[in-house]
Each structure stands twice: as C-alpha cells, then as structure tokens.
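Entry 14. Ran structure prediction on the chain below.
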Amino acid sequence: MSKYTFKQKDFKVFSIDGLENRMEALDEHVRPQLNALGEKYSHYLTEQTGDTFYHHVAKHARRTVNPPKDTWVAFATNQRGYKMLPHFQIGLFESQLFVMFGVMHENKNKGHMADFLSKNIHLLESLPSDYSLCFDHYKIDKSPIDTLSTDDLKHHIKRLKDIKKAEFFVARTLDPKSEVLKTDKAFVQFLNETFDEFIKFYE
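Output, structure tokens:
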C-alpha cells in the first residue's frame, strides 16, 4: 500500500459538492499522504539546508461555505506558520499535483528574494524545461520556464519587489495520470530531485 503518492481517485475529491462532504473526503483520501509527506520532507529539508523545518498541512479552517479547490502541505522554518517566510509546498488541484518554492504576498521581506533572483537569474534560466513559475498561488495556471525570456523574468522579479500583492514561486507539476504517481518510489525520487533544484533558491 502506498504511503506518499496520490491516486487518480484522490484528485476527484475536488469535484465533490459541499464544504462538509469535500472536507470529509480530503480527510480520508488526501490528508494521510500530506501528513506522511510532511514528516518525511521536514526532515529532508532540515538535513539538506541545516535549518530546522516544520510542516503545515492545510486545515481550511476559515471556510464556512465554499469548499477548497486545492490543498497542500507547506514547509517553513517557523513552527507557527509559513506564509510570512519563503517556503516549500506539495499540493493538489483536481487536475494538477504541484511542488513549489517561493514567497507569498504576506512575506514582508520578499524583497530579499527579489534581490537574490536578480543576482542569480541564471538559476531560473538553467531550470529544466518541465519547471515553471507561479505568480499567484490561488491559481492553477503556471508559466513554463522555457516560454519566458530574460526580460520576462526581470519583469516578474521587479514586480515581486515593487508590488505588495505580488508573489513568486518556482514550480514543478504533474498530471494526475502521470506514471510518476504510480508508485511511492517514483514519486519520492521526483520530489527529491525537485526539492534539490529548489534548494538552490533557498537562502
């Protein structure tokens, strides 16, 4: 039995109507893997970076009417929260598994990330072609790295620094039907490779 990966049926929880029914399905079909991934990769990131990481599985506690359209586990160096810090994520929409690293608009020091990216834009340009950038974590849409020019990258980095609501994430995604999700071994290898790439952007 798999411990970490997600089956196609797990993604279907986001098609269930009603907040209560969808939350029950998330608890049964998705949260166990998110908790297992949280335990595994909080240790992994701690070992790889030398900083102590904690995992935060989305609770969706503030929702009273609209059911969540995605869910995730986030990793950051604060035990109480992650939105105010650069952080890693593993999560799901109905039609996409995503892995990301970056900063949300809640991060008051996101200018530091912008400065780092400006000085190290080659790290973005050298990402493999199956990586992308995400500029709004609420949206499923992401921009494949090989479709962005140097000027595009500079634009988004400047926007991150200058605009309060701007966000910036390096991302890698999988289709729910991907062969990578067929086994824990393949999925863990994919995640290890992805996090090792993301760590280059972690200061």
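The longest helix spans residues 31-49. Will compare against last week's run tomorrow.
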